[in-house]
Structure formats: C-alpha cells, structure tokens
Amino acid sequence: MSKGDIQRLVQPQLKDLRPYEPHLYDNVIHLEANENPYPFPQEVMEKIFREMAQLGFNRYPDPALKDLREAIGQYAGVSKEQVLAGNGSDELIQGLLLTFAGPKAKVIIPSPTFSMYKIWATVVGASPVEVPLKADYNLDLPVLLKELEDPAATVVFLCSPNNPTGNLIPLEEVEEICQRSQGIVVLDEAYYEFARESGISILDKYPNLVILRTFSKAYALAGLRVGYILASEAIIKELFKVKLPFNLNSFSQVAARQVMENQPVFEAQIEEILANRDELWMELQTIENIKVFPSSANYFLIQVPEAPRVHKELIEEGILVRYLGGGPGLENCLRITVGTKEENSFLIEKLKAICNSLVVKR
Ligand SMILES: *Cc1c(COP(=O)(O)O)cnc(C)c1O
Fold this sequence. Notes:
This protein has helices spanning about 5-10, 40-55, 65-75, 90-100, 115-125, 140-150, 170-180, 190-195, 235-240, 250-260, 265-285, 305-315, 340-360, and strands spanning about 30, 85, 105-110, 125-130, 155-160, 185-190, 210-215, 225-230, 290, 300-305, 320, 320-325, 335. With about 350 residues, the chain is an alpha/beta fold.
C-alpha cells in the first residue's frame, strides 16, 4: 500500500488538522501554559506516595472513580452521581462531543477561545460554528442566541474566565443561554480557583448545564492529567457510555483525591498567585506601547507592536510566553502566565527592554 492510499483512508475532516505541537525549548521560564509555578507541596506528595506504596500497580484502576468522585462532590457541594473525572478536561471535552455531537451537529464556539473545542468538534465530524466575541471580548449575545435557535446546535462552549482573554462571562448571560439553548451548555471553569465565580449555584436549575474544571492549573497537577465534570445525573450516566473503562490511572486518582483532602495547602499557593497577578498587572501598565487586558485568571492577554518578534526575543532572554497566532481578535497578542515573584520581575525587566527598542526602531 502506498502513502497516497493511507491519505485516501483518513477521515475527510482530519485532512486539514495539524497535530498538537510540543514546545521545544529547554531551560526557559515557562509562562506559556498557565500552570501553577510553585513546586507541588512536599507533604501532599508524601501522602500520595505512601498511599500508592500500599496500593501497588498490578491491579486495574477503579473504573467508577468512586473515591475521587466523592471527594470532588464534597468539594463542589454536589453528589458523586453528578461528578465525572477524566484524563484531563481535554478527555472530557472529547467525551462530551462523542456523546452530544455527531456529523449532523453544530458546535457553537464564541471565539477566540480555547482551541480544543474546535479541534474535537472537527474530529467527531460535527461542524464548529465560531461566533466572534465583541471587541471588548464579551459575548455577542444576540448573535449567539440566534445560532442557538438551530436544533442542530447540540453543544455550545462557554469559557469563563475565557482563555486567552481572561474575562468572565456574567452568570445572567450563562443563565439566558441555558434557557434559550436547545442543546448542552458547557461552562469551562478551568480557572475557577483564581476567579472564584462559578455556575455551580445554577447547576440544579438547568439540566442541560455542564461545568468543566481541571486539576491542571491552580491544583498543580498538569502532569497527572485530571479534569472533572459537574452536571445532572442524567448527563453523567450518558457520558459513562463513551468513557474508556480505565480512563484515569490509579496514581492520578489517588493524587487528585489527596489534593481535595489537602485544600488549605493549595489555597495558600493560590493566594500567592493572586497577589503576584495584581502586582504583575500594575507593572505591565508601566511599559510603553503595551495594551494589557484585565484578567480573572492566572494569565494576562497583552497586545504589543510586533508580537511574533517580542515572542522570539523573549525566548532569547530565556522566557517562554504564548504567541496566539494573530488570528481574528488576537492580532499581535501574547498570553503571559502569572509566575513566581522572581519570574515576573525578570519578565518585566526583559519586556521593558524589548518594547523600548521596538519603539525606537520604528
Ligand atoms: C488548560 C485548559 C484546559 C485543559 O485542562 P486539562 O485538564 O489539562 O486537559 C481546559 N480548558 C481550558 C480553558 C484551559 O485553559
């Protein structure tokens, strides 16, 4: 069989997709992935390893994710039947789309936003419909509601705070969308612990509402891949049909449960990141020719005169931030994760120098 034959066999919707690209930079300060910059707390680490030493690796993990779902349920104030955990929230986005969107479905995506929604909508064969955000990055509610009138619109993704723009969607708008949508409303709260605003209070009111969260950001567990869903029991039951039986390995189940049981340790880190965020916000304002957008999360969107060049020059100085590709609404934009105090000061120093030189040369 020839290479051309392989191409012929590949599903047509995959033709133009590109695989996720890993960053290839060592020895840089990582301010590109919105991770928690602090080391994982030693005391919690030790508890996890002690428990794992008892449990061993020879048995399959619990497919029902019982203990973890119970711990998350307690944390979020819902029953464990309203919780599902996955291999990162990425896996849950895939699961939601496999369950609720097929080749005839439209997946509504206010954009710019997190790229996985569109990618997975495409992979499952649905039609992603991007609805541009307004210039201030708020939802264009009339246009969005119009799109949601279509019965084919079976899933809409709302990201709050939105990645990469940092702004929250007011809860009244989420409610209106839940009321008017004929499909599932996914509210991605990956940055909930930084924003401290949630749709959880209206979860029981709207059977089509799904809240999506992750342990990868505030809870410092990006490497272990754990995300979770809060939704009605009916939705969770359906999601279990497409879930791989052993989607979450034993180690990750134990680690995430220990994180839930050791809240205060992480709360202290989150407080520190929030203080660093406020300080970084003030510092960024002092740099000429940078526009900074306010953020309820642990990152800032900034607009600079020549984003690709600033991105490259920051790498040369040992700092990696995210260049967002310059697409609609993100022209010359970079996303910068809030780091430790030291990382942020270093960033400000370098960014100042780079931006000043850009302005002089123009
Ligand atoms: C980082 C991020 C996720 C992915 O989280 P994982 O649990 O690591 O897969 C989901 N949604 C948004 C908006 C994110 O920024």
